[in-house]
Write a structure and sequence with these properties.
There is one protein chain. With about 240 residues, the protein is α/β, with parallel strands linked by helices. About 30% of the residues lie in helices and about 15% in strands. The radius of gyration is 31 Å and the shape is elongated.
Length: about 240
């Protein structure tokens, strides 16, 4: 009869196979209590003999001997075959290859939220899915806010251009310092002298502040495109009138 928690084989009294049953139970228990795996995304089975003592997590798309093993299972080689156990919610593993802390949650392995190991790989939120291509230094499920606010759109650029003043968006960061749209000649002269775009400081900035300034420049680029389009349209109409 298997044990209720891990399903380990319990040898019976006078069981002639007691020795083998006990060894099998010990191997499975060891696999259940593993704290780390060699790789959680490897799809090609490791060599049975060379990987004795290593554990792996079966990913989606596994091939060979692993293809028939349920995705998410923890497996280890005994030198002859792959022992396997099914994890429960709450199981945790350290993946040595990617140096990531894993958590088994809702029938799948995910990066453990809110943990930083050795200054690497903070995870914010509880990812509902984690494709193998989504490696990075910061992984977020949801959105990112600062001081309970998201990005501030610098729409004062448009307001200043079309009205000559900033009223509606006067409280947006950057509005008080904004002088208005520069001509392309002015921008070129500034870049030639400073080797950077206007309003982009050389000092270090956070992602929010720098993104707001980048969007400000994008809005200015649209205004320049609008102006050039208007001039081209005017020229085309002159040619059309001259042709007629």
């Amino acid at each position: 009869m298997p044990t209720p928690r891990f399903g380990l084989t319990q040898p019976l009294d006078n069981d002639p196979h007691m020795h083998y049953d006990f060894n099998d139970a010990v191997r499975h228990y060891e696999l259940h209590t593993q704290t780390g795996v060699a790789d959680w995304l490897q799809t090609t089975p490791a060599d049975l003999e060379d990987s004795v003592g290593e554990a792996y997590i079966i990913p989606a798309g596994a091939t060979g001997d692993w293809a028939s093993i349920p995705v998410g299972s923890i497996v280890a080689s005994d030198g002859f075959s792959w022992l396997q156990v099914a994890p429960d919610d709450g199981y945790q593993m350290w993946d040595r290859k990617s140096r990531r802390h894993l958590l088994y949650f809702s029938d799948s392995w995910i990066l453990k939220p809110g943990n930083v190991h050795g200054g690497l790989y903070p995870v914010v939120g509880v990812p509902t899915a984690f494709p193998s291509s989504a490696f990075g230094d910061l992984i977020i499920q949801g959105d990112m806010y600062v001081n309970a606010a998201a990005f501030n759109n610098p729409d004062y650029v448009f307001e200043k251009y079309y009205t000559g003043d900033i009223v509606k968006f006067k409280d947006n960061p950057g509005a008080a310092e904004y002088e208005g749209l520069r001509s392309l000649e002015e921008v070129e002269s500034y870049v030639e002298e400073h080797w950077c775009l206007p309003h982009i400081p050389e000092s270090v900035e956070g992602v929010f502040g720098r993104s707001d300034k980048a969007l400000e420049l994008i809005e200015e680029l649209h205004l320049h495109v609008f102006e050039m389009d208007a001039r081209l349209t005017k020229i085309e109409r002159k040619f059309e009138n001259g042709a007629n």
